[in-house]
Design a protein that fits this description.
The protein has 16 helices and no strands. The chain is an all-alpha fold and 335 residues long.
Length: 335
Amino acid sequence: MNIREQIEQMEIDTLSPYASFSCRSEGRSRPEKECDIRTVYQRDRDRILHCKAFRRLKDKTQVFLSPQGDHYRTRLTHTLEVSQIARTIARALNLNVDLVEAVSLGHDVGHTPFGHAGERALNILCPEGFRHNKQSIRVLNFLENDGKGLNLTREVLDGIENHQMSKMPSTLEGQVVRLSDKIAYIHHDMDDAQRAGMISEDDIPITVRMTLGFNLKERLDKLVHDIIENSLGKNQITMSDNVAQAMKMLRRLMYEDVYKNDLAKSEESKVYLILKVMYEYYNDDPEHMPEKYQNMIREGHSRERVVCDYIAGMTDQYCIRQFKDIYIPEAWDVY
C-alpha cells in the first residue's frame, strides 16, 4: 500500500460518512495515472495553487480600488481567508479538508480586474454575459496550461461553479466553501470599511450585534461556531435561523453603506468606462491581443468571449497600463 492509498484508507476510517472520499471521486474528464503520494483532491489543490490565474489574484481588487494602504484586502487575501474559515469548519465536521481547500483556492480565479465592478461591466458589454464563477471554470478547464486546462476532478469544479448563494454544490465540502465565502467577505470587508472610516460599529443594528457579537472577532467566531453546531452529523451544511437572519442583515448593511455608497459608485463608473473602451478596442482589432487569444478566435471561439477572457485575466494595474498605452498620448521630448 503506497502513501496515497494509506491516506485514502485513513479518510474512510476517520471522516464523516457524509464526507467526499478521495477514492470515490467521480474523476476527471481525462483519465490520468494516480499519484503515489497525493490524493486526487490534493493534486487539484496543488495545481490551482501553482497556476498563473491564482498568482494574479494578488493584484486584483476585492472591494477598494487601488487602496492607499498595506492592509486592505485583495482578491488573493480574500481567497486565503475563505480557505482558512472553510478548513476550520470542515475539520470540525470531519469532512475532506483537501477538497475544501481546492475549492476555496480556485473559487475566484475567474474574477475580473476591479472586483465586482469589473464583473458587472463585462456582463453588460459581452452579448454572452459574464459571471466570475463560470469564468473560473473556463480558466481551470481551458485557459490554463496552454489551452489544456488543469483537468480537475468533478467535485472540485462543482464546488467552484456553484459557490454563489443562488447555487448549491453537490458535496458538503462545496457547501462549506459557499458559506465560508460569504462569512469571509462580510467579515473582512467590514474590517476594511471601518479602517477607511466608511462605517463604524455604531452603524450596525443592536439586534445584529446582540446575536452575532459586538466586534469583528466575536462575529466571525459566532458564525463559524453556529455552522459547526447546526451541521454536525447532518447531510447538509446549515445555520440557525436567527444567526442566518442576522448575517443577512449585516450583508444588507454592507451593500447599502459600503458597496453602493457614492464613493464606490463613482469609482465604478470609471471602471465601466475603462473596460468599455478596452472591450471595444480588442473586439474591433483582435490582432492587438497576444497570439494565443488570436488563435482561439481562429479555432472557432467567439470573438466576444475571447476578448472577455483576455480582459478578465488582467490585474488592475496591468489593465490600467494597457488603457494608458492605447488611449493616453505621451508627451514628446523635443529639444
